Amino acid sequence: MTTQIKKLVILGGGTAGWIAATTLGRIFQNSDVSIELVESEQVGVIGVGEATVPLFVDFLRRSGIDEADFIRRTQATFKWGIEFVDWRQPGESYLHTFGPIGRQIDGHDFYQLWLKAQAEGDVTPLMAHSPEAVLSRANKFYLPFKAAGTPFANARYALHLDATLVSAYLSEYAQGLGVKRTLGHVGEIEQDDGGDIRALQLTDGGRVAGDFFFDCSGFQGLLIKQCPGAGYEDWSEFLPCDRAVTVPSARAPVTKSHTVATARSAGWSWRIPLQQRNGNGYVYASDFISDDEARAELLASLDTEPLAEPRVIPFTTGVRSDAWRNNCLALGLAQGFLEPLESTAIHLVSKSLAHFVRFFPGADTREPLRREFNRRLYHDYCEIRDFLVLHYCTTGRSDTPFWRACQAMTPPDTLREKLSLFRAQGNLIPGVEDFFQPSSWQMVLTGMGVTPLGYNPTVDALDYAAVARSLAAGKDAIARAAATQPSHDEFIDTYCKAPPL
Fold this sequence. Notes:
CATH architecture of the largest domain: 3-Layer(bba) Sandwich
Oligomer: single chain
Shape: globular
CATH topology of the largest domain: FAD/NAD(P)-binding domain
CATH class of the largest domain: Alpha Beta
Structural class: alpha+beta
Helix content: 25-40%
Strand content: 15-25%
Largest sheet: 7 strands, mixed
Radius of gyration: 23 Å
CATH superfamily of the largest domain: FAD/NAD(P)-binding domain
Number of helices: 14
Distance between the termini: 53 Å
Number of strands: 21
C-alpha cells in the first residue's frame, strides 16, 4: 500500500539533480511537499555534453529564470543546430537545425513540394528554406524582439552551456524555491521488505528520510540498482561507441552559432563554443581504436590550444528496463545513456520529469502509473536511439573498419520500417509525442544523401508555376531578413556577455 507523498529526496547534485530540484521546487513551492537534495563533494560533474535543444530554453522560461542572466552566468552561447562534417563522405557537411522547413501550400507538406521542385529541375538546397540554417551558415543570431512579421517569427534555438556553471546556477535558484541542500556521502540505503527506500544513511552519521527518491547519482545508479527488476538494456549492437575522451580548449576568435560534429576514424568528435572556451570531445568505439590513439586524434583536431589533460569516460549505451521501480526514479546517467550526438541528455531529464508529474502517484495509485511511465519513457529512448543510428547506418564512408562496420549493421526494426516508408516517396508519420519531428528526419536523410524514389502524386494537382514562385519567394525572404541580423558575437556582446573570469 502506498501513502501520500510528502517528502521528495534527490540524490546527486549534477545537472540532472538540479533540473529535478528546480522543476519540482517550482511545482511544490506553495505546498506541504518538501524537497531535499543530497550531494557529495567527493563526486564531480561528468559534463559529457554541454549542448541542449530548444526545450531547455522552454524549461528556463517555465521555471521563471531570467534567460539573459542565465546565459551570462553560465558562459552560454546560442545554438541553431548541429553541423555534421564528413558523415556521408569526407569533405561533405550538412546542418540539422531546429524548427520546421518552409510551409505548407494548400495542405501539402513542404517537403513534398520541394521534392516536386527537384524533379522539375530546381536545384535549391532544402536548407535554403530553413531560417535557422541560413542564420547558422552566416554565423548570425537574430533580434527576438523584432522577429514578428519576419521569417524568424517562429525561430527555435537552444544553448551551449558549461555544465558545472549550470549546476551551480540551478542550485542557487532551486534553494531559493525552498529546496533543501544537504552535503553528504551515502553510506547505506534503508529499504523495507518490499524494496521501497525509506532513508539514506550518510557517512557522517546523518540520515535523510523520504517518501519518494530520485536517483541522479550518475553511472553508479546507487539507488536504482537496489530496487528489484531495474535491469539495464544494452544497445551496443546498434550504437557501437563505448567511450569518450574530452578536453576543453581556448576560445576561438569567432564563436559559431552551432555545434560541430565531425566524423572521425572510429566515431565522431564534437566542438561546442562557449563564451570563454570551447568544449571538445571524441566519442569512439574501443574495438576500433585505443584510448591513446583517440586522445591523439582529438588533440590533433583542435583549432585552439587545450586547457587541460584529456580524460576518458567509458559508458554503455542503453536504458534501464524500468527507470521507475518501487519509490525510486532514476534520472540522467543513472537512467540510461545515449551518446550526445543530438544533445538529448538534458531533454530526457526534463521529459522524464514531465512524465512523472503527469503520473504523480497519490495514495494507493502507484503501480498503474509506474507501468505507464516506464512504457512511455522506453518509447522516448527508442525513438532517439533510432534517430542516432540513422546517422551511422546511412553513411557512404568505407575508408576505415569502423565505418565499414556501420554500413554493415542491421538497424532496429522500427528504423528499417521508417526508412522503407521514406524511400518510397518521402513519407514520415510522426508519433503522438515524438521529439524528432519529420523535418529533423528530412534534414538528416537529405544530408546523408538518402533520396526518395518519388513524391506524393497529389502534388501534381497544384499549379507548379505558382508553387515555384512561392518557394522562391520564401527562400528570398529568409535570405534578405538574415542579411540584416547581427553576428552571433555581436548579439552576445550587446545583450548577454559573460563577466570576465
